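Objective 1.3, modelling of assemblies. Example input:
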Amino acid sequence: MAKVLVVTSGKGGVGKTTSTAALGAALAQMGEKVVVIDFDVGLRNLDLVLGAERRVVFDFINVVQGIANLSQALIRDKRLENLWLLPASQTRDKDALTEEGVGRIIAELRTKFDWIICDSPAGIERGAMLAMRFADEAVVVTNPEVSSVRDSDRIIGMLDSKTAKAEKGEQVQKHLLITRYDTGRAARGEMLSINDVTDILATEMLGIIPESQDVLRASNVGMPVTLNDANSVPARAYTDAARRLMGATIPVLVPAARKGLMDRLLGRRAA
Amino acid sequence: MINFPRLFGGRTASAPVARERLQILLAHERGLCGQPELLELLRSEILAVVSRHVTLDAEKVRVTMDRGNLVSMLEIDIEVPNSAEGWAVAS
Ligand SMILES: Nc1ncnc2c1ncn2[C@@H]1O[C@H](COP(=O)(O)OP(=O)(O)OP(=O)(O)O)[C@@H](O)[C@H]1O
Ligand SMILES: [Mg+2]
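Predicted structure (C-alpha coordinates):
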Protein backbone atom coordinates (compact mmCIF):
# COMPACT_ATOMS: atom_id res chain seq x y z
CA MET A 1 0.00 0.00 0.00
CA ALA A 2 1.22 3.49 -0.81
CA LYS A 3 2.67 5.57 1.99
CA VAL A 4 2.66 9.34 2.15
CA LEU A 5 5.70 10.60 4.03
CA VAL A 6 6.25 14.26 4.90
CA VAL A 7 9.76 15.56 5.56
CA THR A 8 9.32 18.54 7.83
CA SER A 9 11.09 20.61 10.53
CA GLY A 10 9.67 24.03 11.27
CA LYS A 11 13.12 25.60 11.19
CA GLY A 12 14.68 26.44 7.82
CA GLY A 13 17.91 25.11 6.40
CA VAL A 14 18.16 22.03 8.59
CA GLY A 15 18.33 19.54 5.69
CA LYS A 16 14.76 18.69 4.63
CA THR A 17 15.39 18.90 0.89
CA THR A 18 18.70 17.06 1.14
CA SER A 19 16.99 14.34 3.17
CA THR A 20 14.00 14.09 0.82
CA ALA A 21 16.34 13.52 -2.13
CA ALA A 22 18.58 11.07 -0.27
CA LEU A 23 15.77 9.00 1.26
CA GLY A 24 13.79 9.02 -1.99
CA ALA A 25 16.82 7.83 -3.95
CA ALA A 26 17.70 5.19 -1.35
CA LEU A 27 14.16 3.78 -1.40
CA ALA A 28 14.18 3.78 -5.21
CA GLN A 29 17.54 1.98 -5.17
CA MET A 30 15.87 -0.67 -3.00
CA GLY A 31 13.29 -1.22 -5.75
CA GLU A 32 10.45 0.92 -4.37
CA LYS A 33 8.57 3.20 -6.74
CA VAL A 34 9.01 6.69 -5.34
CA VAL A 35 7.76 10.19 -6.14
CA VAL A 36 9.20 13.20 -4.35
CA ILE A 37 7.06 16.36 -4.28
CA ASP A 38 8.47 19.83 -3.77
CA PHE A 39 5.98 21.84 -1.65
CA ASP A 40 8.19 24.93 -1.45
CA VAL A 41 6.09 27.18 -3.70
CA GLY A 42 8.13 30.10 -5.04
CA LEU A 43 11.43 28.67 -3.81
CA ARG A 44 11.80 25.34 -5.52
CA ASN A 45 15.07 23.55 -4.85
CA LEU A 46 14.43 19.83 -4.98
CA ASP A 47 14.86 19.89 -8.78
CA LEU A 48 18.37 21.33 -8.30
CA VAL A 49 19.38 18.81 -5.65
CA LEU A 50 18.19 16.03 -7.97
CA GLY A 51 19.85 17.53 -11.05
CA ALA A 52 16.55 17.87 -12.94
CA GLU A 53 16.40 21.67 -13.09
CA ARG A 54 16.88 21.83 -16.86
CA ARG A 55 14.00 19.48 -17.53
CA VAL A 56 11.10 21.07 -15.65
CA VAL A 57 8.15 21.70 -17.97
CA PHE A 58 5.06 21.70 -15.77
CA ASP A 59 4.75 21.96 -12.01
CA PHE A 60 2.54 21.02 -9.08
CA ILE A 61 0.28 24.06 -9.43
CA ASN A 62 -0.17 23.47 -13.18
CA VAL A 63 -1.55 20.04 -12.27
CA VAL A 64 -3.77 21.41 -9.48
CA GLN A 65 -5.18 23.95 -11.94
CA GLY A 66 -5.68 21.37 -14.68
CA ILE A 67 -3.24 23.00 -17.12
CA ALA A 68 -1.29 19.75 -17.24
CA ASN A 69 -2.03 16.23 -16.11
CA LEU A 70 0.15 14.32 -13.69
CA SER A 71 1.94 12.20 -16.26
CA GLN A 72 3.06 15.36 -18.08
CA ALA A 73 4.37 17.03 -14.95
CA LEU A 74 6.24 14.11 -13.40
CA ILE A 75 9.95 14.04 -14.25
CA ARG A 76 11.64 10.67 -14.21
CA ASP A 77 15.16 10.56 -12.80
CA LYS A 78 17.76 9.80 -15.47
CA ARG A 79 19.76 7.47 -13.22
CA LEU A 80 17.08 5.78 -11.11
CA GLU A 81 14.12 4.61 -13.16
CA ASN A 82 12.00 4.19 -10.00
CA LEU A 83 12.40 7.80 -8.88
CA TRP A 84 10.13 10.63 -10.01
CA LEU A 85 9.88 14.32 -9.19
CA LEU A 86 6.88 16.63 -9.07
CA PRO A 87 8.47 20.11 -9.07
CA ALA A 88 7.18 23.12 -7.16
CA SER A 89 5.88 26.14 -8.96
CA GLN A 90 7.97 29.30 -9.06
CA THR A 91 4.88 31.48 -8.81
CA ARG A 92 4.67 34.09 -6.09
CA ASP A 93 1.01 33.27 -5.46
CA LYS A 94 1.20 30.73 -2.65
CA ASP A 95 -2.58 30.44 -2.45
CA ALA A 96 -2.60 28.69 -5.82
CA LEU A 97 -2.02 25.44 -3.97
CA THR A 98 -5.35 24.41 -2.47
CA GLU A 99 -6.06 21.70 0.06
CA GLU A 100 -8.64 20.14 -2.25
CA GLY A 101 -6.14 20.14 -5.15
CA VAL A 102 -3.32 18.66 -3.08
CA GLY A 103 -5.65 15.97 -1.76
CA ARG A 104 -6.80 15.05 -5.25
CA ILE A 105 -3.25 14.74 -6.59
CA ILE A 106 -1.98 12.75 -3.63
CA ALA A 107 -4.92 10.37 -3.99
CA GLU A 108 -3.99 9.87 -7.66
CA LEU A 109 -0.30 9.35 -6.80
CA ARG A 110 -1.29 6.73 -4.21
CA THR A 111 -2.54 4.50 -7.02
CA LYS A 112 0.79 4.70 -8.87
CA PHE A 113 3.59 4.79 -6.28
CA ASP A 114 4.82 2.97 -3.18
CA TRP A 115 6.15 6.13 -1.55
CA ILE A 116 5.00 9.73 -1.91
CA ILE A 117 7.56 11.91 -0.15
CA CYS A 118 6.55 15.53 0.50
CA ASP A 119 9.41 18.02 0.96
CA SER A 120 7.91 20.65 3.28
CA PRO A 121 8.83 24.33 3.20
CA ALA A 122 10.17 25.82 6.44
CA GLY A 123 7.81 27.51 8.86
CA ILE A 124 4.44 26.53 10.26
CA GLU A 125 2.31 28.39 7.75
CA ARG A 126 0.04 27.22 4.99
CA GLY A 127 2.75 25.53 2.87
CA ALA A 128 4.03 23.41 5.73
CA MET A 129 0.45 22.57 6.73
CA LEU A 130 -0.42 21.42 3.22
CA ALA A 131 2.73 19.30 2.99
CA MET A 132 1.81 17.37 6.15
CA ARG A 133 -1.97 17.39 5.66
CA PHE A 134 -2.33 13.94 4.02
CA ALA A 135 0.72 12.24 5.57
CA ASP A 136 0.71 8.71 6.97
CA GLU A 137 4.22 9.10 8.36
CA ALA A 138 6.56 12.00 9.07
CA VAL A 139 10.30 12.48 9.16
CA VAL A 140 11.04 15.32 11.56
CA VAL A 141 14.42 16.75 10.59
CA THR A 142 16.28 18.29 13.52
CA ASN A 143 19.73 19.74 14.07
CA PRO A 144 21.16 19.21 17.58
CA GLU A 145 20.72 22.83 18.49
CA VAL A 146 18.17 24.59 20.73
CA SER A 147 16.09 26.53 18.20
CA SER A 148 15.81 23.56 15.87
CA VAL A 149 14.68 21.24 18.67
CA ARG A 150 12.11 23.76 19.81
CA ASP A 151 10.69 24.12 16.28
CA SER A 152 10.60 20.34 15.89
CA ASP A 153 8.54 20.13 19.05
CA ARG A 154 5.99 22.54 17.56
CA ILE A 155 5.89 20.57 14.32
CA ILE A 156 5.32 17.33 16.24
CA GLY A 157 2.38 19.03 17.97
CA MET A 158 0.96 19.99 14.57
CA LEU A 159 1.42 16.46 13.22
CA ASP A 160 -0.64 15.24 16.17
CA SER A 161 -3.46 17.72 15.68
CA LYS A 162 -3.67 19.30 12.23
CA THR A 163 -3.29 16.34 9.87
CA ALA A 164 -6.14 14.47 8.22
CA LYS A 165 -5.08 11.36 10.16
CA ALA A 166 -5.13 13.19 13.50
CA GLU A 167 -8.59 14.54 12.75
CA LYS A 168 -9.80 10.98 12.19
CA GLY A 169 -8.44 10.05 15.63
CA GLU A 170 -5.44 8.20 14.14
CA GLN A 171 -1.73 8.91 14.54
CA VAL A 172 0.80 10.03 11.98
CA GLN A 173 3.81 7.80 12.63
CA LYS A 174 6.73 10.08 13.47
CA HIS A 175 10.44 9.49 12.96
CA LEU A 176 13.24 11.72 14.17
CA LEU A 177 16.14 12.34 11.79
CA ILE A 178 19.06 14.25 13.25
CA THR A 179 21.11 15.93 10.54
CA ARG A 180 24.24 18.07 10.36
CA TYR A 181 25.56 16.28 13.42
CA ASP A 182 29.05 17.65 13.97
CA THR A 183 31.14 14.93 15.58
CA GLY A 184 33.93 17.32 16.54
CA ARG A 185 31.63 19.76 18.32
CA ALA A 186 29.77 16.88 19.95
CA ALA A 187 33.06 15.47 21.29
CA ARG A 188 33.90 18.89 22.73
CA GLY A 189 30.48 19.04 24.36
CA GLU A 190 29.48 22.11 22.33
CA MET A 191 26.33 20.60 20.90
CA LEU A 192 23.22 19.01 22.36
CA SER A 193 23.83 15.29 22.64
CA ILE A 194 21.71 12.73 20.84
CA ASN A 195 20.29 11.65 24.19
CA ASP A 196 19.32 15.22 25.03
CA VAL A 197 17.42 15.53 21.77
CA THR A 198 15.63 12.17 21.95
CA ASP A 199 14.74 12.74 25.61
CA ILE A 200 13.18 16.09 24.85
CA LEU A 201 11.33 15.10 21.68
CA ALA A 202 10.42 11.55 22.74
CA THR A 203 10.20 10.36 19.16
CA GLU A 204 11.52 7.18 17.61
CA MET A 205 14.95 7.71 16.03
CA LEU A 206 15.30 7.15 12.29
CA GLY A 207 18.95 8.05 11.94
CA ILE A 208 21.80 10.46 12.52
CA ILE A 209 23.39 12.15 9.52
CA PRO A 210 26.78 13.74 10.17
CA GLU A 211 27.78 17.17 8.89
CA SER A 212 29.76 16.26 5.79
CA GLN A 213 31.45 17.67 2.71
CA ASP A 214 29.99 14.75 0.78
CA VAL A 215 26.53 16.32 1.07
CA LEU A 216 27.71 19.59 -0.47
CA ARG A 217 29.61 17.81 -3.23
CA ALA A 218 26.53 15.77 -4.13
CA SER A 219 24.28 18.81 -4.31
CA ASN A 220 26.87 20.68 -6.41
CA VAL A 221 26.61 18.04 -9.10
CA GLY A 222 22.88 17.45 -8.71
CA MET A 223 22.92 13.95 -7.29
CA PRO A 224 21.28 12.60 -4.16
CA VAL A 225 24.16 11.79 -1.79
CA THR A 226 23.20 8.09 -1.71
CA LEU A 227 23.82 7.96 -5.45
CA ASN A 228 26.85 10.22 -5.76
CA ASP A 229 29.03 8.37 -3.30
CA ALA A 230 27.17 5.38 -1.87
CA ASN A 231 30.01 4.52 0.51
CA SER A 232 30.34 7.91 2.11
CA VAL A 233 29.30 8.19 5.76
CA PRO A 234 26.17 10.33 5.13
CA ALA A 235 25.08 8.06 2.24
CA ARG A 236 25.31 4.99 4.45
CA ALA A 237 23.43 6.75 7.23
CA TYR A 238 20.64 7.74 4.80
CA THR A 239 20.49 4.22 3.35
CA ASP A 240 20.12 2.72 6.82
CA ALA A 241 17.39 5.26 7.58
CA ALA A 242 15.56 4.20 4.40
CA ARG A 243 15.83 0.56 5.47
CA ARG A 244 14.30 1.46 8.82
CA LEU A 245 11.44 3.17 6.97
CA MET A 246 10.95 -0.18 5.22
CA GLY A 247 10.65 -1.83 8.63
CA ALA A 248 14.16 -3.19 9.17
CA THR A 249 15.57 -3.14 12.70
CA ILE A 250 19.06 -1.69 12.48
CA PRO A 251 20.69 -0.14 15.55
CA VAL A 252 21.26 3.61 15.20
CA LEU A 253 24.95 4.43 15.52
CA VAL A 254 26.14 7.77 16.79
CA PRO A 255 28.81 8.89 14.29
CA ALA A 256 32.21 8.66 15.96
CA ALA A 257 34.37 11.72 16.34
CA ARG A 258 37.57 11.74 14.40
CA LYS A 259 39.87 13.54 16.78
CA GLY A 260 41.55 16.53 15.27
CA LEU A 261 45.34 16.81 15.32
CA MET A 262 45.29 19.52 17.98
CA ASP A 263 42.98 17.46 20.16
CA ARG A 264 45.29 14.50 19.90
CA LEU A 265 48.45 16.54 20.57
CA LEU A 266 46.88 18.19 23.58
CA GLY A 267 45.24 14.98 24.76
CA ARG A 268 41.88 16.74 24.91
CA ARG A 269 38.83 14.80 25.92
CA ALA A 270 35.17 15.45 25.57
CA ALA A 271 33.88 17.87 28.16
CA MET B 1 41.98 0.11 -7.09
CA ILE B 2 43.64 2.99 -5.34
CA ASN B 3 42.14 6.32 -6.14
CA PHE B 4 45.21 8.56 -6.19
CA PRO B 5 43.61 11.96 -6.56
CA ARG B 6 41.38 11.07 -3.64
CA LEU B 7 44.31 9.81 -1.63
CA PHE B 8 45.93 13.18 -1.96
CA GLY B 9 42.74 15.04 -1.22
CA GLY B 10 42.50 16.57 -4.69
CA ARG B 11 39.52 14.77 -6.21
CA THR B 12 37.67 16.35 -9.10
CA ALA B 13 36.19 19.56 -7.81
CA SER B 14 32.41 19.75 -7.84
CA ALA B 15 32.17 23.54 -7.59
CA PRO B 16 32.75 24.20 -11.33
CA VAL B 17 29.85 21.85 -12.12
CA ALA B 18 27.67 23.72 -9.64
CA ARG B 19 28.67 27.03 -11.22
CA GLU B 20 27.78 25.93 -14.74
CA ARG B 21 24.45 24.43 -13.67
CA LEU B 22 23.52 27.63 -11.89
CA GLN B 23 24.53 29.85 -14.81
CA ILE B 24 22.28 27.94 -17.18
CA LEU B 25 19.37 27.86 -14.75
CA LEU B 26 19.58 31.52 -13.80
CA ALA B 27 19.90 32.64 -17.42
CA HIS B 28 16.57 30.93 -18.03
CA GLU B 29 14.90 32.18 -14.88
CA ARG B 30 15.94 35.77 -15.55
CA GLY B 31 14.55 35.53 -19.07
CA LEU B 32 16.35 34.54 -22.23
CA CYS B 33 16.92 37.23 -24.88
CA GLY B 34 15.04 39.69 -22.71
CA GLN B 35 11.91 37.59 -23.08
CA PRO B 36 11.03 35.89 -19.83
CA GLU B 37 9.58 32.42 -20.03
CA LEU B 38 9.98 32.27 -23.82
CA LEU B 39 9.90 28.49 -23.84
CA GLU B 40 6.77 28.43 -21.72
CA LEU B 41 5.12 30.90 -24.06
CA LEU B 42 6.04 28.85 -27.13
CA ARG B 43 4.78 25.73 -25.50
CA SER B 44 1.37 27.06 -24.58
CA GLU B 45 0.83 28.84 -27.91
CA ILE B 46 1.86 25.82 -29.97
CA LEU B 47 -0.52 23.63 -28.03
CA ALA B 48 -3.29 26.20 -28.39
CA VAL B 49 -2.87 26.33 -32.17
CA VAL B 50 -2.82 22.56 -32.51
CA SER B 51 -5.89 22.15 -30.33
CA ARG B 52 -7.87 24.42 -32.64
CA HIS B 53 -7.60 21.70 -35.29
CA VAL B 54 -7.23 18.47 -33.37
CA THR B 55 -8.99 17.28 -30.25
CA LEU B 56 -6.00 17.01 -27.97
CA ASP B 57 -5.94 14.11 -25.59
CA ALA B 58 -3.66 15.23 -22.76
CA GLU B 59 -2.35 11.68 -22.43
CA LYS B 60 -1.19 11.78 -26.05
CA VAL B 61 0.84 14.95 -25.76
CA ARG B 62 4.38 14.74 -24.49
CA VAL B 63 6.34 17.89 -23.78
CA THR B 64 9.97 17.75 -22.76
CA MET B 65 12.47 20.47 -22.16
CA ASP B 66 16.23 20.58 -21.91
CA ARG B 67 17.59 23.96 -21.06
CA GLY B 68 21.11 24.34 -22.34
CA ASN B 69 23.83 26.92 -22.32
CA LEU B 70 23.77 28.01 -25.97
CA VAL B 71 20.58 26.32 -27.13
CA SER B 72 17.60 24.74 -25.47
CA MET B 73 15.42 21.93 -26.75
CA LEU B 74 11.66 22.15 -26.53
CA GLU B 75 10.15 18.93 -27.82
CA ILE B 76 6.43 18.54 -28.30
CA ASP B 77 5.21 15.13 -29.40
CA ILE B 78 1.57 15.05 -30.34
CA GLU B 79 -0.11 11.85 -31.29
CA VAL B 80 -2.60 12.83 -34.00
CA PRO B 81 -5.41 10.33 -34.63
CA ASN B 82 -6.02 9.24 -38.22
CA SER B 83 -9.72 8.54 -37.85
CA ALA B 84 -12.29 11.22 -38.57
CA GLU B 85 -13.56 11.39 -34.99
CA GLY B 86 -10.21 12.72 -33.89
CA TRP B 87 -10.50 15.90 -35.90
CA ALA B 88 -12.11 18.95 -34.46
CA VAL B 89 -14.10 21.17 -36.77
CA ALA B 90 -11.60 23.53 -38.32
CA SER B 91 -12.73 27.11 -38.15
N1 LIG C 1 24.66 16.55 6.53
C1 LIG C 1 25.00 17.72 5.98
N2 LIG C 1 26.30 18.10 5.92
C2 LIG C 1 26.64 19.28 5.35
N3 LIG C 1 25.79 20.14 4.80
C3 LIG C 1 24.48 19.82 4.82
C4 LIG C 1 24.00 18.61 5.41
N4 LIG C 1 22.66 18.56 5.27
C5 LIG C 1 22.31 19.69 4.63
N5 LIG C 1 23.38 20.46 4.35
C6 LIG C 1 23.42 21.76 3.67
O1 LIG C 1 22.60 22.66 4.39
C7 LIG C 1 21.92 23.54 3.52
C8 LIG C 1 20.42 23.45 3.75
O2 LIG C 1 19.99 22.14 3.42
P1 LIG C 1 18.57 21.87 2.79
O3 LIG C 1 18.29 22.76 1.64
O4 LIG C 1 18.43 20.42 2.58
O5 LIG C 1 17.67 22.33 4.03
P2 LIG C 1 16.11 22.61 4.06
O6 LIG C 1 15.66 22.22 5.42
O7 LIG C 1 15.44 21.96 2.91
O8 LIG C 1 16.05 24.18 3.89
P3 LIG C 1 14.72 25.09 3.66
O9 LIG C 1 14.07 25.19 5.01
O10 LIG C 1 15.25 26.38 3.17
O11 LIG C 1 13.88 24.36 2.67
C9 LIG C 1 22.33 23.13 2.11
O12 LIG C 1 23.38 23.95 1.70
C10 LIG C 1 22.80 21.70 2.29
O13 LIG C 1 23.75 21.34 1.32
MG1 LIG D 1 14.11 22.78 1.43
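Residues 62 and 68 of chain A are 6 Å apart (CA to CA).
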